Amino acid sequence: MLTVADIIRIIEDHAPPELAVPRDPIGLQCGSGQWEIKKLMIALDADHRTISQAAYAGAGMLVAHHPLIYEPLASIDPESSVGRAVAHSLENKVAVYCAHTNLDAARNGMNNALAVLLGVAGRTVMASSSPERFKITVFVPENSLGEVRTAAFEAGAGKIGAYTRCSFTSYGTGTFMGSEGTDPAAGNPGSFEEVSELRFEVIANRHVVDGVIDAIRGVHPYEEPAIDIYSLHSTGTDEGIGIIGSLPEKTTVGKLANTLIDLLGAGAVTIIGDESRKVQRVAICSGSGASLIGIASASGTDVYLTGDMKYHDARQAGELDLAVIDFGHFAPERYGMKEFGKTLNMALRNTGADIEMLYAEEEDPFKVITRT
Ligand SMILES: [Zn+2]
Fold first, then answer.
1. Is the model's pLDDT at 208 over the cut of 90?
2. Ligand 1 mean position to 360 CA, how many Å?
3. How far is the CA of 224 from the centre of ligand 1 (A)?
4. How far is the CA of 333 from the centre of ligand 1 (A)?
5. Distance, CA 338 to ligand 1 centroid (Å)?
6. pLDDT confidence of 103, banded at 50, 70, 90?
């Protein structure tokens, strides 16, 4: 049986919280990490409609993309939209967890799902998220290395790109002298000791550092283990908002628009630029990506796929001679969440846990009307 906290750890392996843009209210918004979960529901929006669906289906956890609580609440009024959803969540024991811009920026996140759907190759990110990473170094006697290393890995350290359990160990000599009242693992209090030690070093993202330190301390044989934590300078990453790459073959803006309508089940898309324009290099940013128009244009993109374009955004794209397909906000992100649900389902199964995965029924709030 997994708890909400166990499931959050698995989600954050795929969508590390430090990838989120500042002040994005991601994370567990309602409920307790200790609740045990048998059924889990995936949704695009966390609101009273999806929380009700989860409660009705007996799901103890709702994992959504758009946060339920965007601004700190000064009070909880069950007559308000958010207050009603919060009350509903707590009354029905439906924990609400939101992975928002951290999932957008994740290596296998929202935009990657869309890029894979379109067969986009040579993928790079539009705006790198440069997550904070640390190097943890601990000095350990040789016979305790295995235990310390396993504890660090199990607490989330040692992940570099698609590799896990990465670390380095070197030999050296440690010295110490315990004062009266100490109980050294080697030698006696008051005597100067020289012992063979290993220097074990491992990398960790910010959100797991405290847990890794606790795990190492928990198994380290010394009373006072020497643990150093270094902040690392970021050297660029394949994690970030938006993806740029090449479609498998040249097409036109019009044909690509139709492909998107078919693949995403979108009611319609909006085009900025010439429908017959030939395109192959594409930039993708799900959600509201107008702020990245300049990056899309400067990177030699033929066409930019994003949502929530406003009138003046369209004018700016036109001036930059950048074709844009506004594929809306709902359809691409609903698709991204369904793909994330599959990834999460597989990761949960790998733990041996039997958790049923459900998907909320949601509708695009926008309806397209064409003249009949
Ligand atoms: Zn969104």
1. no
2. 16
3. 47
4. 6
5. 14
6. very high
60: how many CB neighbours lie within 10 A of its CB?
A: 22
What separation in Å is there between the alpha carbon of 90 and the centre of ligand 1? 25
Dist. CA 91–CA 55, nearest whole Å: 9
User: Residue 153 has what pLDDT?
Assistant: 94
How confident is the model over 339-372, as pLDDT tens digits?
Answer: 999 999 999 999 999 999 999 999 999 998 888 7
In the CATH scheme, what is the code of domain 133-231? 3.30.70.120
Ligand 1 center from residue 100 Cα (angstroms)? 8
When computed from its CA atoms, the radius of gyration of the chain, rounded to whole angstroms, is: 25
Distance in Å, CA 320 to ligand 1 centroid: 25
Looking at domain 2-102+333-359, which CATH architecture does it have?
3-Layer(aba) Sandwich (3.40)
Q: Rounded distance, CA 27 to CA 25, Å?
A: 7
Q: What is the pLDDT of residues 271-308, one digit of tens each?
A: 999 999 999 999 999 999 999 999 999 999 999 999 99
Confidence (pLDDT) at 100: 96
CA of 212 to the centre of ligand 1 (A): 32
With a cut of 80, say whether residue 238 has pLDDT above it.
no
Instruction: For residue 10, report the distance from its CA to the centre of ligand 1, in Å.
Output: 22
Residue 84 Cα to ligand 1 middle (Å)? 22
- The CATH architecture annotation of domain 110-127+241-328 reads 3-Layer(aba) Sandwich (3.40)
Q: Residues 318-344: what's their mean pLDDT?
A: 96
Alpha-carbon span 187 to 192, nearest angstrom: 8
Q: How far apart are the CA of 362 and the centre of ligand 1, in A?
A: 14
The answer for residues whose C-beta is within 8 angstroms of residue 202's C-beta and 6 or more apart is 135, 136, 149, 152, 153, 157, 158, 166, 167, 168, 212
Answer yes or no: same fold for 110-127+241-328 and 133-231: no
Q: Which of 169, 142, 159, 244 is closest to 208 using CA atoms?
A: 159
CA of 334 to the centre of ligand 1 (A): 9
